[in-house]
Amino acid sequence: MSEGATTTANGSANKKSAPRRATAESMAKKQREISVSEFFAKNRHMLGFDNPRKALLTTIKEAVDNSLDACEEAGILPEIWVHVEQTGESRYKAAVQDNGPGILKKQIPLIFGKLLYGSKFHRLRMSRGQQGIGISAAGMYAILTTGKPIKIVSKTGKTKSAHYYELRIDTKVNKPEILNGKGDGEDIPPGEKGEKYIQENGIEWETHLHPESPDQTPKPLTHGTRVSLELEAKYQRGKGSVDEYLEQTAIANPHVTLHYTDPSGVQRTYRRATDILPPEATEIKPHPYGVELGRLVSMCKESNESSLSGFLTNSFSRVSPTIAKQICDKAKLSTRMRLKRIDRDHAEQLYSAIQDTKISNPTTDCIVPIGEEQLLKGLHSVVPAEFYAAATRPPAVYRGNPFQIEVALAYGGNVETQKITKDLLKELLYETDARTVRQFLILTFNGLGPDAADKILKTSKLGTRKSPNKMKPKEVDILFDAMQNVNVNEGQSMNVYRYANRVPLQFQHGDCAITKTIAGTNWRSYGLSQSRGNLPSGPVTIMVHIASVWVPFTNQAKEAVASYDEIQKEMRLALQTVGRKLGMFLRRRMKVKQQADRRSIFRRYLGEVAQAVSDINGVEKDDIYEKLLQVAKKKTAEADMVLDESGKAVDPAQADYGGGVLIVQKDEEEMLAEMLNRPAETASTGSSDDAQNELFDADEDEGDEE
Hints:
Elements: E1 5-7, E2 13-15, H1 24-30, H2 36-42, H3 52-73, E3 79-88, E4 91-98, H4 108-113, H5 134-146, E5 150-155, E6 162-170, E7 175-178, E8 186-188, H6 191-200, E9 224-232, H7 242-252, E10 257-261, E11 267-270, H8 293-302, H9 308-315, H10 321-331, H11 344-356, H12 372-382, E12 387-392, E13 396-398, E14 401-411, H13 422-431, H14 437-444, H15 450-460, H16 473-485, E15 495-500, E16 503-505, H17 513-520, E17 540-548, H18 565-617, H19 621-635, E18 661-663, H20 668-676, H21 690-705
Parallel strand pairs: 3-10, 15-17
Antiparallel strand pairs: 1-2, 3-4, 4-9, 5-6, 5-9, 6-7, 6-8, 10-11, 12-14, 12-18, 13-14, 14-17, 15-16
């Protein structure tokens, strides 16, 4: 009986279905090549499109980054328009336009309609984009979720025609498919004829630059690019929002003017703080230490050089003819050896010789740091605080790639819960997808930790399970009052701003080397409270920026920096630098406060002591009083310390932070309120002599300002 048959009781045979076995031929018919577009269409979470809210932010981010890179490379002060508009229940239109150099007609479909197409992947120089995926991936996501094409308008000059494209990505072959102009796009003529065409066809385009002042005449926009996409998305304020991204972009790019229109129609403009563009980064050749064996073999095959010495000196940075000879001698290869004769064994000898040869670090003009002065200005313009410190580390190298770490810190000021209005709170409660009010507070307001949220909830008596979307108007009023009046500085968690090549990183905090290094730093020695392995507590905002020719992101979404030992070491040293400055400030402020407290005690009893001594020995009361004043002032001299706006003491011998510091002086009522931990009010002084009041009031003002 054949396999797969069974016999019943009466002897009849019933066939049983045997498992089918695929043959090599049938398996081969099912196999086919997968394009990169098709892969990422099914794995869009890898590019930052894993939920509607994040998809909107990623789309805006990729478009703005491209605009900034294009403007800076062309030597143009960037002016960027960002417009987010709701078109349906879960649909939004995102549009970004710039005043950059524009894009050539034949390049437009490839840039916006083909993944892994760009000019930055092979260049070793600092830039925001790296892989040629971002904006085309955003277009792919828009088409997948709404079916609407990407719309692009680009103009390269005043007398040149603008090019208008509507296109989609054919994910099967990773190629653009042009939908308008019979597959060739449309050309919009310059001048009034073109403006009329734009209006008649409903094409969106900013025609004029915004004037710096109301009395100036708007200048026509003669070049630039605009991209519009309609996608499935969700707009929500707070952490990880478009609003936060644009605000942080303004901090790290003070040369940019940003015009932002949100879905509510509210327009905001972030004006540039400087008219000076960052220096242009110079492209460099790869460093020998950063090339692995397989890549070295490929470079040998691709090179047009005839000799080994010529290949080494012309293909790598920091390799002179002398260094090339040292490498060849250690590899036991001739400098005149023909490159075509290099096989894998020769390449392995060459690779080992490179690792054993001392080669200078690559040049660092390929990276452009923000600079301590701009860091302080940028942070001060957005984060209100008392003390600011910044540090820029010298350039370093990982895997042959130059990089530079910068850190800025702000201490003091109120948390965001005390800055918002009641109407904004109502909007945030309506928009949030948090399940509880506690979760809403922690996720919405930067720097507000669980302890601070619990304090607010305890005061408001709303309960930990209250849903934000079901709160009654009276409950919203109670929550708002608690947020305004509860002192949450002690329960406030450090607020961290992460940047890579001037681009804010807003997701995957826990996986990022920046967050890990901050949490691994001992902040207790600098005056902050901290649990082991966690971020420190207190009214602190810290900004960490890595500038590199190739930032080692953990994934294609570019949301977290990989944990290389060299990078974390430089971060740690920069954090320790600003930490020491913060520690000096906090210790001196504490000492000044202690001296001010001592003076207040003297102030309370000095007059009575002078009168008692005068009654006992008959000495003139005024003479005793003046001498006691001199002694009191000498013993509490720390309370007289006064710092200028850059954080330096008027007497340099008293305080020197070593540069990179900005201290904001507060008025008398603000500092007195902070010392007493209560709202500012007019302090009453008691019955003392006028001269005594005048002296101690002045001393307390100076001490409290420190």
